[in-house]
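Milestone M4 deliverable, item 7.
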Amino acid sequence: MIGRPSYPSTFYEDYVVGTTREFGGRTITADDIAVHAEQTGDVFPHHMDAEWCATQPFKRRIAHGTLVLSVAVGMTATDVNPEAMTYGYDRIRFIRPVFIDDTISVRAEITARSDHRRHPGRFGLVEEDVRVTNQDGEVVLALVHLYLVNKRSDPARAEQAG
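Output delivered:
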């Protein structure tokens, strides 16, 4: 039997406001847009019809905002932390369009920590400000990623260990 891999734990107490992470270089392709359209059913002409787009202000097909969001979130998911999970996303803003062959990069910064309102001894909330830029350094997407993180000081954890 093959054993389960072990993953390092990062507890709430380990997150430091101001810590940044950067992830670079993912090009959005026409195939990405086609697959996303098929999976979601979003086949609006803004994404799929080059001729129609030529008559519109942007003059070319644009990637779905939800595609860019999904790819960007995936780019930040580089480490498995058994002590944390995504709690949600706030203030998602699609600031500029992303076009076919644009390359996006992501910068994430821990901006806040707080106790969980209903379970302050067990969990903390960590807010990460996420900015997605294109190859020209322009912000195309901004959001706040919320994490629910186990506390090292959780009394239930101490009982299990003791």
